[in-house]
């Protein structure tokens, strides 16, 4: 801003007195004399116009018409989302099978329409979107939901994420029931949080109770949680999160569109029908 003001002052001085810099007879000016003087004035005018524009634009955007800033931001976000959708589209078309190979699947596993959801069992927004997806699955048998367990909350996330993937290795249908249980029930209490050194142990104990209720072999489940397939799926989730620039949960890929955040039922249905 300071440099703009200094240039403006210089430009005004150049406009007023710049002609004095040109040597020649003002009473009998030559063509070169006239061209030089006019060129100096033109340069001065351009500088003045540029400086005034630069000084006035922030005031206009913040005080006179702040709404245009929101429109500009919205347009930029739309453009960024379009670019992200393009990248997602290109990857999903070629790698959908790999994306769902080791992941738990809800709904009809042979369905034609697929929703990939990056989710965390301890995330309240993820639980909300899980409810919206459950509504979709109740009404449609042409949709499947692929659970990509994005473990981002440490001990509250790691155990459930590993257990969900390991459950799929044991029985896909029971794994779907188990995933729903962990998404709709509490697997830790506020008292559990008081001793952070034991929270992982308490979380695992609680989810194993759910696993048993879902009909899973808990001894096998604990062993499979350390299996290389689980590690491979968690790595795939992280790699895709980086590729798709996923910074938080939930994040949905519906068809070939990306949706960050807990989008509602109606928006999910609309995206599925595109």
Architecture of the largest domain, CATH level 2? Answer: 3-Layer(aba) Sandwich
Nearest-integer average pLDDT: 86
Number of domains: 2
How would you describe the shape? elongated
CATH homologous superfamily identity of the largest domain: Glutaredoxin
Instruction: Name the helicity range.
Output: 55-70%
Radius of gyration based on Cα positions: 31 Å
Count of alpha/pi helices? 10
Number of strands: 5
Report the CATH C-level class of the largest domain: Alpha Beta
User: What is the CA–CA distance across the termini?
Assistant: 49 Å
Uncertain segments of ≥5 residues (pLDDT<50)?
none
Which strand order does the major sheet show? 1-3-2-4-5
CATH topology of the largest domain: Glutaredoxin
Work out the strand percent: 5-15%
Order of helices and strands: HHHEEHEHHHHHEEH
Largest sheet: 5 strands, mixed
Classification by helices and strands: alpha+beta
What can you see in these coordinates?
The chain starts with a helix and ends with a helix. The protein has two domains: about 1-65; about 75-270, Glutaredoxin (3-Layer(aba) Sandwich). The chain has a five-stranded mixed β-sheet. About 65% of the residues lie in helices and about 10% in strands. About 25% of the residues are buried. β2 (about 115-120), α4 (about 125-140) and β3 (about 145-150) form a beta-alpha-beta unit. With about 270 residues, the protein is α+β, with helices and mostly antiparallel strands. It has helices at about 1-15, 30-65, 65-100, 125-140, 155-170, 170-185, 200-215, 220-225, 230-245, 265-270; strands at about 105, 115-120, 145-150, 250-255, 255-260. The chain has ten helices and five strands. The model has no long low-confidence stretch (mean pLDDT about 85). α1 (about 1-15) packs antiparallel against α2 (about 30-65), α5 (about 155-170) runs parallel beside α7 (about 200-215) and α5 (about 155-170) crosses α9.
């Amino acid at each position: 801003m300071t440099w703009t003001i200094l240039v403006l002052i210089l430009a005004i001085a150049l406009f007023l007195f710049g002609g004095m810099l040109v040597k020649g007879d003002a009473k009998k000016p030559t063509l070169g004399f006239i061209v030089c003087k006019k060129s100096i004035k033109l340069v001065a005018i351009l500088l003045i116009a540029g400086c005034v524009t630069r000084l006035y634009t922030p005031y206009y955007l913040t005080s006179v018409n702040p709404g245009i800033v929101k429109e500009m931001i919205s347009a930029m976000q739309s453009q960024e989302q379009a670019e992200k959708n393009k990248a997602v589209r290109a990857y999903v078309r070629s790698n959908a099978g790999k994306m769902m190979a080791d992941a738990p699947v809800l709904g009809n596993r042979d369905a034609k329409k697929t929703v990939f959801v990056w989710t965390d069992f301890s995330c309240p927004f993820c639980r909300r979107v899980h409810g919206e997806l459950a509504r979709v699955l109740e009404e449609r048998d042409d949709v499947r939901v692929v659970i990509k367990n994005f473990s981002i909350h440490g001990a509250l996330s790691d155990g459930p994420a590993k257990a969900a993937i390991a459950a799929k290795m044991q029985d896909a249908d029971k794994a779907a029931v188990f995933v729903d249980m962990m998404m709709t029930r509490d697997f830790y209490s506020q008292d559990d949080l008081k001793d952070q050194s034991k929270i992982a142990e308490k979380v695992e104990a609680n989810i194993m109770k759910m696993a048993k209720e879902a009909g899973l072999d808990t001894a096998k489940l604990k062993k499979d949680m350390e299996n290389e397939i689980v590690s491979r799926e968690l790595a795939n989730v992280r790699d895709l999160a980086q590729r798709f620039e996923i910074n938080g949960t939930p994040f949905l890929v519906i068809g070939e569109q990306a949706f960050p955040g807990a989008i509602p039922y109606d928006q999910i249905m609309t995206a599925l029908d595109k």
